[in-house]
Amino acid sequence: MLFKEIIGQSEIKNRLICSSTEGRISHAQLFLAPQGSGGLALAVAYAQYICCTDKQENDSCGKCSSCIKYNKLIHPDLHFVYPVALSKDIRVSTDVAKEWRETFLDNPYLTLFSWFEQLEAENKQAVIGVEESGEILRKLSLTTYESEYKIMIIWQADKMNPAAANKLLKILEEPPDKTLFILVCESEDQLLRTILSRTQLVKIPKLTDENIKTELSKNSELSLETIDNIAHLADGNYAEALMLINENENAAQNLASFQRLMRASLKFDPKAVMIWIDEVAATGRERQKNFLKYALHIMRESLMLSYADESIVKLGSNEEDFVKKFSPFIHANNVERFIDELNKAYFHMERNANTKILFMDLAFKFNELLNLPKPI
Question: What whole-number distance in Å separates Cα of residue 247 and Cα of residue 229?
Fold first, then answer.
């Protein structure tokens, strides 16, 4: 992966290049990157630049033996760790290494949701288990094969369970010589404080609308109007922009599901609520978390539509029709509690809460909140 292949992020690219050329490579770095901003792609491009044998001023050469192997993700001194769905046959990342290479090379802006769709494991919990830590320690105990550095990229590092994270503390603090850890995650809230204290933080910002427009304009099949609309809706998330181009069937499903839940909750129709819960419970856990994030998006846009300039509202055409009717129910008396309840539900979902109990509790609370009077 070359730096020039990554959308935007000029300042971060320059910072990473300077750290390498000036010999100031921190042995453990945390790339804190919002979804779709290119955190994983930057980590791979940075690793490739460090190992390139013919570095250019602003990028890897892309032609040396090291770069050729990096472009195929087969360099012997590059190691990846990523969440998997634990089973009898899949215990660590290398058990699905072929699928990982194919997925990343197809789309370096992959999300956890799209990764688990590729694994056909949407109904399972994403986790980096304790056996993975043992594999990390084993791999990094070996000498380098070709490069000066051994590089370990841990994607979605916040998915490490506590046992796995604790097992890595010592090697993060005192790694073998010429060993580089790059942890990539979207939120630092789930990482152990002891992990955070051992890493150098690299904050990667959202992409700008202009960044996304520039990239989308390379697709000759998209009109300027479509590109403007997608960039506006994506809100700095290139992964979301790609899904919007593909007509994002999942978003349509989320909208329909959200509409049904709100209608059933408003007057609290027990039969409709139970049917909805049974259907949602049958989907995968990652899809359920995706729905909760979508609900937060609709709550935000509903509030903006009621109290702010419509120009900053980010909605698709189908969403806009619904939100115009729904927004009067979202106001100063209930919006904070709506957001709090959805965030708590997501938090508990991350910790394997019972899906049916969790969504039934939400339906009861939504009934109360939807019927709160609007402030005068």
Answer: 13
